[in-house]
Amino acid sequence: MKALKKIRHRKMLAQEGRCYYCGLPMWDEANGYSLLAAGRKGRPPRALQCTAEHLLPRSEGGADTSENIVAACLFCNNARHRRKQPPSPEIYRMHVQRRMAAGRWLAAYLPGTGQGGSR
Ligand SMILES: [Zn+2]
C-alpha cells in the first residue's frame, strides 16, 4: 500500500495535479489544498480527492506498477469501476471529456459554473 501511494503521488505530480480523465485539479493529503483551483474555500470536495487508478483493473490482474497506475479523481475512478464491465481507459476518457464539454460531468466543479448544479 505504501508503494502504491508513492506511485500515485508521483503520477499526480507528473499530471500537474490534474485528473487523468476529467483534467480537474485534485488534492491529496500531502498537497492539501494547494493544488485546488483558486478561489475555493473550506474543505476540498471529496469527489476531487486524488486516487490511484488502475488502467487494467485489479480484478483483471492489473498490478500496482507505475505503468498501470495513473492519478484520477475519486469521482472518475468510482464511476468507471461502478460499471459491470469497466470501459478501457481510452474509451472512458473520451466519454468523460465529452460529458465535460457538455457541462454534464462534475458540473459543480467546472470553472465558471459557480456552485451547485448536478454532477
Ligand atoms: Zn476526474
UniProtKB/TrEMBL annotation:
GO molecular function terms attached to this record: endonuclease activity; nucleic acid binding; zinc ion binding
Organism: Gemmobacter aquaticus
Name used for this protein in its record: HNH domain-containing protein
Residues covered by the HNH domain: 49-83
Top-rank lineage group of the source organism: Bacteria
